[in-house]
Amino acid sequence: MANPPPLRTTGKNLRVGAALNLFLPGAGLIYLGRRRAGALLAIAFLICFVAELGLFIVSYGRYLSVAMSDDLMKNDNLERVGDVFPRAWLIAFAAGGFVVYLISMGLYSAAKRQFEPPPLL
Question: How far apart are alpha carbons 19 and 13 in whole angstroms?
Fold first, then answer.
């Protein structure tokens, strides 16, 4: 019985790559050598994350100014409290980040196949 040819070793730990990809989509791809795709996905995710965080912080500041004002019950101030958060933009950036995350997971699973040993028969 002939021994199978030795597998090429790259020194890459797939668990480390998966953890990197979990915390920052695209980082696992960069780790595995797919730098361009990983960088594009990481930048797209960071743009969505920073935009979401910025919108939330600005909106929360507006919410606090309306909620802590002395004339909350006058005019239509109480009704305006619900309108300070731009829900459509917040949902759009969150959905964009989620789509980038799913794409990153798919590309990572495709990239790691070249580092896994073939199944034994």
Answer: 10
Where b means 16+ CB within 10 Å and e means fewer, 28-55 reads bbbbbebeebbeebbebbeebbebbeeb
Question: Taking the mean position of all CA atoms in its chain, how far away is CA 85?
Answer: 21
pLDDT tens-digit series, residues 69-86: 777 777 777 777 777 888
Give the integer Cα–Cα distance in Å for 88 and 107. Answer: 28
**Token couple for 29:** 């791809």
Of 109, 97, 107, nearest in space to 45 by CA:
97
- Cα–Cα distance, 20 to 109 (Å, whole number): 13
Half-sphere exposure for 33 (CA within 13 Å, toward CB): 10
